[in-house]
Amino acid sequence: MILSTLETLPGLMITHHLGVVSGSTVRAKHFGRDFMAGLKNIVGGELKGYTELLNESRQQAVERLRQQAESMGADAVLNIRFATSSIAAGAAEVFAYGTAVKVSRA
Amino acid sequence: MRYENRLPPEGINVTQGNPLLTALSLLAGLCITVVLVVLGIYLLGSALATQIPFSMEVTLAKRIGLLGEEHTSDTRSQALQTLANRLAAQVELPEGMAFSVRYVDDDEVNAYATLGGVIMLHRGLLDQLHSENAIALVLAHEMAHIIHRDPARVAGGRLLVSAALGLASAAIGVDLLSNFANMTGNLTVLSFSRDAERQADVTGVEMVGRAYGHMGGVAEVFERLAAYEAKTGLSLPEFLASHPETAGRNETLREQAQKMGIPLDGALTPVAPRLRSGQK
Amino acid sequence: MWEFYSFLFLLVVGYGVGTYLERSHFASIRRREQELINKAIVFTVRDLPELPGNPQLRLVAAGTVVSIDYFKRIVAMLHHFFGGNISSYESLLERARREAILRMREKAHAIGATMIFGVRLETSAINDGNPKTTTGVELIAYGTAIIPDHTAGATPQLWHTPA
Hints:
The complex is a heterotrimer. In chain B, about 55% of the residues lie in helices and about 5% in strands. Chain B is mostly helical.
């Protein structure tokens, strides 16, 4: 499964456009990390806990995107975009979407 | 080039699971975690409090008004204090420990030990006891609590939990402290665990046994107080509320008497007139 | 005590009515997705195919705001304590997203468009001024709809063939 933010894939020909696929997840970090982040607000600097949280969320979102594409019989997902939004305090939604396509060697 | 939209299967973007079940399991997990954490903090506070020397506890008691000169003036308090001193001489006391017995002239059937070696004995309870031996047991039991530093333990535990809750409240913005305060009551009225009560029974009974040479009149205290509780249907505050069953306490009594090699019964010392309130 | 009872009541109502509404909404979404199959198909790519004649391009945008019911909020708080996926919000977003895309497609279909390209989705949390209490989630979907030029002999079948 090829995942790309490009519109076309060099050296490959798109034979089928299969539609929009998306993967989204809403995750929260546990209470302890929140507390640490609250303290970090005083001194400043990278909130490692939240960086980790968003990394995991991104990975899971891409994984779900891949699952949807596979279920449609796609070979690649093009034009992938990410969107993050905060739904509740301490919880973030990460959302990845793109177009699933079937490709063949040009 | 063909363009179409294929529908993906349901459920990829949602974590599976019955929402009600997950909610309940999360709630259960949360309750258990909170209880364990609070218990841990309480035990830590208790342990730390026992490290504080008794002299500092006395200073604290003076500062919060438990200890003061005006309380010791009446004859009944003095008579009880003499009895307490006699009992205190029967065991080895920790460094610098001294007791202050106060007589409280009201109908409440209660006696309790609090910080700084202060013991309060109410008229209501005193009127229920018909021998000096019985009164001695009540005093000895409370003194035992102080010897074991039970008031300090409870105060220390509560204080640390309050501090932790205050910190947590500031972090998450929810006021937990007022709820906790409602549940545990004020600092001067301290209730001890079953285990602490049993230990206090053992030491208290030992002190009485040594002072009088027999255990007569002691069993009467347990039974009389249990009967009072049964008759009135109330659970007596502090003194009986977390106490072990009467049968268990009598068992403690028998074991202790056997260990010390003293008889279970003997001539009871009548209550000195000075101690009698004149009200029946 | 009254506070606790009102809390319980809201929780039960939130769960009962909320679950029912969610389920019926999802059923409606599935039904409409079936109806719109091969009509107003969507893609995020901006690379347009060869279009015969003079097709018209229109901006189509649609959105929806779905609110968070009481039960979901409480469960999210519990999830927040332990960490991990908040399943209650995930179903909420899924619902909002599919609804927004459907509305966009319905709009496009209503103006005679057969395909929508360059589709983008945006999520936003709605609150009453205090970011800690999110009342709802807004989802918008927008893209460029293509209305085929029938005079040039273009028929929809030329562009999309069902599987």
